Amino acid sequence: MLPRMFSEERTCWACLQPGTQLRVDRKGKPYLACPLCGTYVFFRTRQALAGLALVSPVVEEIARRMQADPHYAAEQQQLVARSRAALFDAMSLPLSPAARSENAVVGETKKRTA
Prior knowledge:
By secondary structure, the chain is an alpha+beta fold. 54% of the residues lie in helices and 14% in strands.
């Protein structure tokens, strides 16, 4: 029987939605799997497992705070949009029209607050 920590539902580190599960692969190594966004996070060392214990509560708190505080949620969404744009730029990937409009909104907000 697996330890209780494997049966607990967690918040996804990528999409911040509940439903992520801690699983064990064929070789007995633990990993997180999100059925909503398809993210897999593999823990290959004992040090990486320490990250699970430290990061999961922080992710849970961010998700709770985003649900409770619309202003905080908007700030976090702007951070995500800027990070996505920087990543796509570094990878030389074209932004989708939806992502372009999100980044335009972020740019406008930045201009107004400056």
